[in-house]
Amino acid sequence: MFKNTQLLLFLLFFLVNTSLSSQITIGDNDKFDYTEPKEYIIGGITVSGIKYIDESFIKLKSGLIVGELLDIPGIKITNAIKNLWEEGIFGEIEIKATKIQGNLIFLDIYINERPKLSMYTFKGLRKGEVENLRKEIGIKRDDAVTEHMLNRIRDKITNYYIEKAFLNVEIDIVQKVDTLKPNYVILTIHVNKNNKVKIGEIVIEGNEKLSDNKIKRLLKETKKKNIVRFWKKSRFSEQNFKEDKLALINAYNALGHRDAIIQDDSVYKLPDGNLGISITIDEGPVYFIRNITWVGNTRYSDDTLSQILGFKKGDIYNQQLLESKLFMNMEGVDVSSYYLDFGYLFFNLTPVELMVENDSIDLELRITEGKQAIINKVKISGNTRTNDYVIIREVRTKPGQLFNRSDIIRTQQELAQTRYFNNETLGLDYEPNQAEGTVALEYQVEETSSDQIELSGGWGGGRLIGTLGVSFNNFSIHNIFKKSAWRPLPSGDGQKLSIRAQSYGIGYYNFSASFTEPWLGGKKPKPFSVTAYHSSFSNAKPKDDPDRYAFKINGMSISLGKRLKWPDDYFYMNHSISIQNYVLQNYTLIEAFNNGDANNLSYIFNLSRNSSDDWIYPTKGSDFDFSLQMTPPYSLFSDKNYADLSDQERYKWIEYHKWKFRASYYINLAGNLVLHTRAKVGFLGSYNKEIGATPFERFYLGGDGLSGINQFDGREIIGMRGYGASELNPRNRSGAVGGTIYNKYSVELRYAVSKNPMSSIYVMTYFEAGNVWNNYAKYNPFELRRTAGVGIRVYLPMFGVLGLDYAWGLDEIPGVHKKGAPEFHFSINNSID
Question: Is the full-model pTM beyond 0.85?
Answer without folding.
Answer: no
